[in-house]
Write a structure and sequence with these properties.
Number of domains: 3
Subcellular location: Cell membrane
Strand order of the largest sheet: 15-16-17-12-18-19
Radius of gyration: 24 Å
Strand content: 15-25%
InterPro entries: AAA+_ATPase, ABC_transporter-like_ATP-bd, ABC_transporter-like_CS, ABC_transpr_CbiO/EcfA_su, CbiX-like, ECF_ABC_transporter_ATP-bd, P-loop_NTPase
CATH topology of the largest domain: Rossmann fold
Pfam family, one: ABC_tran
Largest sheet: 6 strands, mixed
CATH superfamily of the largest domain: P-loop containing nucleotide triphosphate hydrolases
Oligomer: single chain
Family: Belongs to the ABC transporter superfamily.
Number of helices: 17
Shape: globular
CATH architecture of the largest domain: 3-Layer(aba) Sandwich
CATH class of the largest domain: Alpha Beta
GO cellular component, one term: ATP-binding cassette (ABC) transporter complex
Amino acid sequence: MGDGMTAPAMVLLGHGSRDADGVDEYWALADTVKNSAPDLRIGCGFVELAEPGVDEAIDQLVADGAHEVVVVPLVLLAAGHLKNDGPAAMARARQRHPTVHFRLARDLGIEPTVLAIAEERIRDAAGDADPEKLGVALIGRGSSDPDACSDLWKVGRLLSDKRGLGTIEPGFVSVARPNVAEAMERCRLLGATTIVVSPFFLFTGMLVPRIHQQAGEWAAKHPEITVRGGAHLGPDPRLARLVLERYREALHGDVRMNCDLCTYRVQLPGYEDKVGLPISLTPHGDEPARGKRKARRAIRTPAPAPTVEVRRGRFMPSTTASDEQPAIEIRGVSFDYPDGTSALSTVDLTVHRGERVALLGPNGAGKTSLVLQLNGVLTPSAGEVLISGTAVGPRTLKEVRRKVGVVFQDPDDQLFTPTVGRDVAFGPAHLGLKGDELAARVTEALSYVGLADLADRPPHRLSLGQRRRAAVATVLAMHPEVLVLDEPSSNLDPAARREFADLVKRLGMTTLLVTHDLPYALELCQRAVVLDHGQVVADGPIREILADAGFMSAHRLELPAGFNPLGG
């Protein structure tokens, strides 16, 4: 991010709310942004309804010496408040501080990270519902601004494309139509027997409970439909990196575009797998145009009178105040092997909850030595390792090893019993789980990786991709907080690579990806940490690191021939 004393300052602009929980969520995300960019001067202010105001936040930064200020709105979709109040705040600031340069960044917008979090919230609420009979009422705030309303339809379209989320019908809680009940009715008429009501809101406030109240009123009139309330996005830690991207974008320009040689230069929502791919020279893509839609019919299944319950996923990162505690803290860690070989030298690393970080480096760089410090397999010669605030040591090994799940490069190292189900049950059973509780834990983990129907199958009868997912299930059954993946794409065919990447994204867990597969790391992670000779030699946006040809060559990192991390 640069030197905080010379880099432009940033103001995190919130709308403000009468609801204390909504304001607290703003501060939780603001704290995560500050922790992600400790050298950057960051102020906080609101448009209305909460203190301090945006003018006060700007004035304080200028008083502290800022000569350039970037205002980043913590807003999902730009509507009247951002379009009017944002520029108005800039105009007032320029009048008060004519020698200071001000920039206004764009809203968080329709972006892969936002869509991924929204998808997780929907899946968490849907649970085991049949996707063929699932309807999603995607509910936005509602606005007289046509751009904001149409953007919700774009979000719904992208969420419904190849994600297995059933029928998605947008609606609004106020001002615009269709309203909550009308969106739910559309889902019912299209054959949904389970409806998830998903608020497309960044923070809670007065309107999110109103959405669930209106959904409950509709549900009471339709006892044949199962209605489940989804959670809003909330201060998910992954959004912090998006906020910093908006900051950089305001300074250096928006690079969302295509070029003559590739489909897309950067990740675009719903098309993340096309970054840097050659464009098709045929009118309809690489395959003949085809269009066939499976017929749908309305089916109703009797069900108890529903209640609207907001559900949160088992493997979704927490968005409580505990997010202030990093998932991984490595403080000045050095490690020497018994023969005197130095593997790590004064390594410092912090990984926040929900982050996916790629750990890169040549062979012998110290990656494995570092990873084995996380669960106490190796003990530092100096320094300390903390997992969610718990120091790794002899007295905490049991707790730490439950919190940190490691998936080995070879899944056969983790699958050793006669059946997949017994492998998954092994860890929870040693925690003391028995009977129905143990069976439920096994079913939950296998369902999440798509192997629920293979619990009785011997591991050697699974494909490599299935065995790798089964290995993940053995870890998920322990309900860990941190997931470590060692060369997860090794020896997988393209379809299995894609399936495993989709699984990792869907988990939404704090993930450390140890790999030599640089394109795979780029697909899954926004941040990379590079180790060489036991030291951290780079820590930053993965795309920028991979694009630095001189740095890559100096540290024996090599991209596949023809692969351009910038997508050009």
